[in-house]
Each structure stands twice: as C-alpha cells, then as structure tokens.
Write a structure and sequence with these properties.
Its EC number is 6.3.4.2. By secondary structure, the protein is α/β, with parallel strands linked by helices. It has a 9-stranded mixed beta sheet, with helices on both faces. The protein has a 7-stranded parallel beta sheet with strand order 5-2-6-1-7-10-11, sandwiched between helices. It is globular and about 75 Å long. The chain binds glutamine. Glutamine (GLN) binds next to strand 19.
Length: 534
C-alpha cells in the first residue's frame, strides 16, 4: 500500500507549495522510492485549458495530453519523471463525475451532498491513483489556502483518509507564511497558529509545518510555533526564500525532511543519491561567464508565470552553460517599425512566445522579420513559429498572409495557417486542441537535427492551427525550410533559416521536457548562440 503525503497551504496563496511538494518528491526518489504526485485544484473549471494565463499562469501539458496546473511542471522538473492527466483534478472535474453518476441513478435515490458524496469522490480519485500506479508514495497537493470555501471538501476528504488509516499511512505537511514586521523587527506567528487551528477544526493535525519567510527564522520562532501547535520542534521547519528554487531539495534534505517522513512511516531511511542534483545546484553558485539579455516577445508580459516552463527551460540551460540570464518581457502589441530597434536593443537572443488570439500577433511577425534581418538568435515556439512562417510568406510577396485563427471577414487574406486536418471551427474550445507528445522527424542536414544531435524527437503539442501543405513549396527557398515533420500526419513541426546563427521555430513546446538533470538540447543551443552574439 502507498503512503500518502498531503501538502496544504495556509495564511496566503503563492507560497510555493508546489515547489515544497516537488522537493519532498525529489528527496524520496533520490532514496530509490517511487513517487506519484497529484494536484487537487479547488476551482470549478474542468481544467485550466481555457483559462487566461493571467488568471492561472501557464497551462502545463503532460506527455499524454493533459492540460494541467503549472505545479505539474515543478513536479516533473524536480522529480525528473513524466506524470499524466491523472496528476491533476479540479472541483469542476469532480462535480462533473458526480453529476454524471447522479444522472445514471448511481446514488440510488439519495440526496447528493458535500459530505459524504463529494468527499467520497475525492477519496476515490486518490485511491484509484494508488491502485493504478502502486508507487511507494502518493504526494497530494491541495490547491488554494486552508479556509477557502472552495477547498473545504478537499480538506475534509483528506482528514477522513487520515482517520481511516489511523494516521499510519498519511502524513500532513502544512506550508504557511511568517510575516516580518519592520516596525517592531519581529516575526509574527499568529497567522500560522490560526491556520493550524483551522486545520485542526476540520480534523487534521499537521505532522510537519514548513514556515515560509523572506529570511531564516530564529530558533525561538520555531519553538514558539511548536509550542502553540503541539507539534514536535524538529518537525517545524524554516523554509526561507532561496537564491534559486532548485536549491530547495538540498535545503530540505539538510533539515532532515525526508528522514522525518520515513521515520514516521517506519520505512528504511536509505542514503540519498543526490550527486547529480548537487552538481547542477553547485553551478548556480559558480561565477558566470557573462549575462545574457533575452527578450521575450509575447502578450502576457505582466505575469511571467504565464510562460513558466519557457523561463525555467532557459534558466536551466543558462545554469548548465554557466551564464547569467536576464529575461525581459516585451509586449508584442506595442511593437512597431519605429520602436523595434530600441525595444530589442541589447538583445543577445529573442524568444517569440506561444499564444492564442490576434492581439500581439502582428508584433510577433514584425519581430520575426527584424531578428532574422539582424541575425539575432531567435527561437519561435508554437505561435512564435507560426509568426516566423507568416513573416517568410510576407517576404515572398504574400503581403496579406496570416493565420485563419485571426481571420477578418472584411479583408482579403491568405491563410498560410489553417485548422489542423479534421478539426472544425465550431468545435467547443475546451480540450479540443492537438495535445500531448508525438514524434517529429527532422531533415538530416537541418540545423535543428544538429542541435538535437538526432533526427527523431518526441515533444509535446498544444495547438489548433498548422502550416498549409500547399504553401510549403512556395515558402521554402535556399535558406528557409520546414525542417521537421510528423512522420505519418506530415504536419509541419519546425522551420529554420540555415544561413543565420540561430533562427528556428518549433510548432511544439520543447519547454515541457527541459529538466535540471537533463537540460534541453535546443535551449542549450539557443543559449550558446546567444552568448556568441556580437
Ligand atoms: N494559437 C496557435 C494555434 O492554436 C498557437 C498555439 C500556441 O502557441 N500554443 O495553433
């Protein structure tokens, strides 16, 4: 039977519960234990697929095509494991299961209620995962903050699991926040005490408290929290902001986090194999060769979590190659011929970011034309690649080239990109994109094959539009080519200008497979070429 580790959050949101859950997973896996991670999100959408990145940050795509919470990215990067659709459930999904059962009469005439029906549904999801994956540990992170209306059923459900197993198979980690009052130069523990009391009121006594704060907390504060909550002092852990999130597993290792958990479950402590992780983290602290300015051309520029995995993929490659990296977000909508030189001034490299909808697309096309002309290393991802393709069409004289996604009935337009074969315009928008992992075969002599050091890769997708086959011969020339295709469906997967240092677009999302223990080859090549830029 699996052991369950539940991670809840208190006081405020955005504390890094995901990083905490992922770090615990990292430490258990380093000891040879198998780990599965599940994120339960209290909001009512079925998945984050149709939510604005401003609401929710990036939509993380799993290999099997799940559109999931960005915490899944932390889990996969920290634990170096591919998770699946099963790793993310929302209240919306849970209620939809319940309503389906209700229509089938499976509640046999009963009034369907939060307790026991919603809580039972939550418990059965967790137990099904245990059955299906049979991992040593199932780590369950509950989204939101304890005390939110929405998260109550989840808290009651995991409390019920705790009492069902009499505490033997369940371990509760509560992540809270300790504010520092400048005026009195004092850390304040009252919000944490309140939050633990709320949990207790719902039937959970945490086994461990991670106290997030801007600084290290003095022992006196840890003792105060331990005394006020009746939790062992060793199990109250100060978790300050670190220079780099990838240091968190090592920090928690130092605080005996994994040993405490294994001790509790009476499992073998085992010596962790952390050499590779330590090697990567040591690079964070090393002196850097130089700082690279990377301009990120997109539309959700006020909220960098919208591009979380791309940021991380770039940072991981920069750490790996020993550069400092500065990511500078530019709102593509504000770009025009007059200001582009100044807006991209000082760029070692440019990433043309993914996205949906017309806003900012013309700015991305302008950016694609400019960086190509100036030979600034450029990586286009998904909509970014589509912008590079439209830019090429304009260079070929098709001045009204665009994507059908932005069709304007009042204009004469040429759609270089149209819906992927088989997709209809009137499809419902949620869950109907081309999603998940599939194969790409690169042309042998392409630059992208050289950078990947292979002609066959598996990467993840999330799009609805594709380059139209009939335009391929019109757009390709001596320099510009479509260098990668899906082997059977013949969908275009990449483009490049081989006369440039790095001008590559990919229809898929390489950022989802970049890991600290396996920096992504394409991002590494992009960083190297950016570093060489004069
Ligand atoms: N909007 C584009 C499409 O649907 C690109 C999607 C993306 O960038 N993820 O094809």
């Amino acid at each position: 039977m699996s052991k369950f580790i539940f991670v809840t959050g208190g006081v405020i949101s955005g504390l890094g519960k995901g990083v905490a859950a992922a770090s615990i997973g990292n430490l258990l896996k380093a000891r040879g234990y198998s780990v599965f991670v599940l994120k339960l999100d209290p909001y009512l959408n079925l998945d984050p697929g149709v939510m604005s990145p401003y609401e929710h940050g990036e939509v993380y795509v799993t290999a099997d095509g799940g559109e999931t919470d960005l915490d899944l990215g932390h889990y996969e990067r920290f634990i170096n494991e591919n998770f699946s659709k099963d790793s993310n459930y929302t209240s919306g999904k849970i209620f939809s299961n319940i309503l389906e059962k209700e229509r089938k009469g499976l509640y046999y005439g009963k009034t369907v209620q939060f307790i026991p029906h919603v809580t039972d549904e939550i418990i059965s999801i967790i137990k099904n995962i245990e059955q299906k994956y049979q991992s040593d540990f199932v780590i369950v992170e509950i989204g939101g903050t304890v005390g939110d209306i929405e998260s109550n059923p989840f808290i009651y459900a995991i409390a019920q699991m705790g009492s069902e197993f009499n505490g033997q198979n369940t371990f509760f980690v509560h992540v809270t926040y300790v504010p520092f009052l400048e005026t009195s130069k004092d850390f304040k523990t009252k919000p944490t005490q309140d939050s633990v009391n709320k949990l207790k009121g719902m039937g959970i006594k945490p086994n461990m408290i991670l106290l997030r704060a801007n600084h290290f907390l003095p022992d006196s504060i840890l003792i105060k929290v331990a005394n006020a909550t009746f939790i062992n002092k060793e199990n109250v852990i100060s978790a300050p902001d670190l220079e780099n999130v990838y240091q968190m597993p090592l920090y928690l290792e130092n605080e005996n986090t994994a040993s405490i958990i294994l001790n509790y479950f009476k499992m073998k402590k085992r010596k962790p194999k952390l050499n590779k992780w330590i090697k990567f983290v040591n690079k964070v602290e090393k002196d850097k060769k130089k700082t690279l300015n990377i301009k990120m051309l997109g539309k959700y520029t006020a909220f960098s979590d919208a591009y979380k995995s791309i940021n991380e993929a770039l940072k991981i490659s920069a750490i790996d190659l020993n550069y400092h990296i500065k990511l500078d977000y530019i709102d593509a909508e504000l770009l025009n011929e007059n200001n582009i030189k100044q807006m991209l001034n000082g760029a070692h490299g440019v990433v043309i970011l993914p996205g949906f909808g017309a806003r900012g697309f013309e700015g991305k096309v302008l950016g694609a034309l400019y960086t190509r002309e100036k030979n600034i290393p450029t990586l286009g991802i998904c909509l970014g690649m589509q912008a590079m393709t439209v830019a090429q069409a304009r260079l070929k004289g098709i001045k009204n080239a665009t994507s059908k996604e932005f069709a304007n009935k009042n204009k004469q337009e040429t759609y270089i990109l149209d819906l992927i074969k088989g997709k209809k315009a009137d499809d419902q928008i949620g869950g109907t994109l081309r999603l998940g992992e599939s194969e790409t075969v690169f042309k042998k002599d392409s630059l992208i094959a050289k950078y990947y050091q292979t002609t066959n890769v598996f990467e993840r997708h999330r799009h609805r539009y594709e380059v139209q086959e009939k335009y391929i011969p019109i757009l390709e020339d001596e320099d510009f080519s479509f260098s990668g295709y899906h082997p059977e469906l013949k969908l275009v997967e990449s483009c490049e200008d081989k006369s440039k240092d790095f001008y590559i677009g990919v229809q898929y999302h390489p950022e989802f497979t970049a890991r600290p223990l396996a920096p992504h080859k394409l991002f590494n090549a992009f960083i190297k070429k950016s570093a060489n830029k004069k």
